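Trying the structure run again after the queue cleared.
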Amino acid sequence: MADKENFSTIINRYFQNDYRERGKIKWNGYFLSDHTSSLVKEDVQRNQKTQKLPTIPLNEAQSILQHSCVNYHIVTVQQNIETTDGCLIPNVTGLVNGFTALGVYINQQFIAYENIRTVIREK
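Done. Tokens:
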């Protein structure tokens, strides 16, 4: 009986003081390769800093957007919005879906005219 109590004490002490949970490392083998690659891609996007492009006048940006909408060209729009660490938010790339009096829709994402820094038509 004393051996069982001694063994229980040793086991309890081990898990309370010495055992270190490996956390995420323990579960990495269960992830599928496509899930792992999407996690890596997401991490790269999250840590990527947007390079500031030259500012263009609003009427020029609107002209590029209208031409791209009519001709189904893909555009990249950089907004003049900074994150808390002083970097620009990621660029929005896609087709122009439509216009309102206050902004434009790129891939169903609304961008206000007042926030547009530059527009680039992709080749």
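DSSP finds four helices and five strands in the chain. Worth checking whether this holds up in the mutant runs.
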